Amino acid sequence: MQTVETELAVVGAGVIGMSVALEMARSGAIVHVVERAPSVAAEASGAGAGILSPRLEVERADPFFELCLDSWRLWIEMNRFLADTTGIDPEHRTRGLLHLAATPDEWALFLRRRARQVEIGIETEVVSPAELDERFPGVTTAVPGAIYYPDEHYLHTDRAMEALYSACRAAGVLFIFDTEVALDAAGARVAGSPPGGARTVRLKAPGLEIAADQIVIAAGAWTGELTGALDVSLPVGPVRGQAAIAAAADACPPCVIYSSDGYVVPRTGGEVYVGATHEQAGFDRNTTDEGIDLIWKNARRLLPALDRIKPSQRWAGLRPCTEDGLPIMGPWPGYTNLLVASGHCRNGILLAPITARIVREWIVNGDPGRDMTAFLPDRFL
Ligand SMILES: Cc1cc2nc3c(=O)[nH]c(=O)nc-3n(C[C@H](O)[C@H](O)[C@H](O)COP(=O)(O)OP(=O)(O)OC[C@H]3O[C@@H](n4cnc5c(N)ncnc54)[C@H](O)[C@@H]3O)c2cc1C
User: What confidence tier does 269 reach under pLDDT thresholds 50, 70, 90?
Assistant: First the structure.
């Protein structure tokens, strides 16, 4: 039996696990990341579109909006840091996002929502079909209208994950791949604490035991399964998203083109990323012809020039989603060394930098530095 002793063990090498590991390693901690797959970003984080959009669907200035907005700000800094320290450019672009309405009813809804967004200071522009042709060439004009969000960003997910991994290694993070761990909380009551008092958790895998001052669960859609070993398992489960890319130099849009049925993201080199379904399919992350046809049909509606083009690659990922749609972040009550950073569902890439910052504040200062009530694991325990 090999025993690893470390200051921080992170379960999962997705965008959340790597971001937490990087933040803590930069604070001087000894960090191990343990991952079931043979490489990083093997699950949802490798599938994401990379849209960094805190404003699009916002109705009010609630704690979730504030979290998203703060993380969007941190990405600007993070992008610079990653590019400077690794030489890998995450291709973070600040070109905005265009949200197209499909029907007059939906357009009326967009306008009502926009009025509330303007009230809370979100910058938006109403774009008529005639203006679409002028300002966003190639985008369909067969819509009742569109709202442009000039401050929304996007990045190239593969490059960002590569840069994050490279930055982690440069900061001294140690990765243990091909290793599926379980939580072991049995018989681990803290010395001197009363029955039912605080306990510590270890990680175990065949032939391996990891003892850590702190453990962060960043196991994505598998967080529910992993935490099943404790008294209560967290309600985080998979929501499948199918996506595709194609070489489409002539049909590349000037910014992210978004609709209720899917979206198109431009990528450097003349590619387009087309996403994404939102399906309950358990842990099955195969693509289906129906799923890809659906998103591609929608993409052709948004950008008619895609009519001539076929997807060159397709894949699916499992978003880690919670019952109430909010992420889960914070210490697990009753354990001295266990924190959760999971359940980011459709916004995990956007929320990675703020999640890492908050987890660091908790571990280093014992206080997240902001009101986290809405996101604590406690709400499900
Ligand atoms: C098609 C699609 C498009 C998306 N687009 C966007 C977008 O535009 N913007 C955005 O912000 N978000 C987007 N998302 C959501 C985003 O990708 C996820 O929220 C994010 O990747 C979740 O990251 P994670 O690190 O929590 O999970 P994951 O990336 O799934 O990582 C969890 C890791 O934990 C590992 N693991 C699990 N259990 C164990 C265990 N017992 N032992 C060891 N390792 C374990 C897994 O192998 C996995 O690698 C999209 C998702 C999909 C599927």
Answer: confident
